[in-house]
Amino acid sequence: MVSVLSLWLPILLSAVFVFILSSVIHMVLKYHNSDFKAVPKEAEVLDALRPFNIGPGMYTMPRANDMKDMNSPEYQEKLKKGPVAMLTVLPNGPVNMGAALFKWFVFSVIVGIFSGYVAGIVLGPGANYMEVFRITSVVAFCSYTLAEWPFLIWYGYSLSTAVKSTFDGLLYALLTGGTFGWLWPMA
User: pLDDT of 96-145, one tens digit each?
Assistant: First the structure.
């Protein structure tokens, strides 16, 4: 058994590597630029919504309070009339990229902690590279990717967005597994 505390270096270093790779993916490769579509007549839509002063949060339109309301003729008519939408409203003003990037890094550290924890339970000091790689990369892959798919299922995310995010997660997992395999404690 290997303690998580003894894995501090691969945990932090894998998070740094993932952070760098994700920056390259989003700032250089830019294949996620097509994840969100522009709303037709965006200026008019924004002008129409502005008077409602909708606060930050997640919304659905039309919204039913419960299953009974969902089956009502009135609600069914609203669905037919449309639009049917889910809306995420952020605070007004520039996006705080510093805070978002910090949260992403912390998330990557947490993925490293869980990856190391699971491998540390299963493997002892001196485990070979491929054993460490296999376990930590699988845990990291699950951590980085599986939560994306319910958004496709329930919230209308596109298949291409889910596939691209899964591909990213595979790359992050390979980096994580490789870092742990490289820096796994010796016997």
Answer: 999 999 999 999 999 999 999 999 999 999 999 999 999 999 999 999 99
Residues 136/177, Cβ–Cβ less than 8 Å: yes
Average pLDDT in the chain: 96
- The H-assigned helical ranges of the chain are 8-24, 42-49, 67-70, 73-81, 97-122, 129-145, 149-155, 159-183
The model's pTM is 0.91
Predicted confidence (pLDDT) per residue in 59-96, tens digit: 999 999 999 999 999 999 999 999 999 999 999 999 99
The encoded tokens of residue 42 equal 């965006």
**Distance of alpha carbon 160 from the chain centroid:** 15
Distance of CA 72 to the CA centre of its chain: 35
Torsion of CA 165, 25, 180, 105, to 10 degrees: -90
pLDDT for res 187:
86
Contacts of 64 (CB under 8 A, 6+ apart): 70, 72, 75
Q: Per DSSP, what are the bridge partners of residue 57?
A: 89
Give the whole-angstrom CA distance, residue 162 versus residue 159: 5
Q: Which amino acid is at 127?
A: A
Exposure on the CB side of residue 18, measured as CA atoms within 13 A: 35
Please answer whether residues 137 and 176 qualify as being in contact, where contact means their C-beta atoms are separated by less than 8 angstroms. yes
Q: Are 89 and 54 in contact (CB under 8 A)?
A: yes
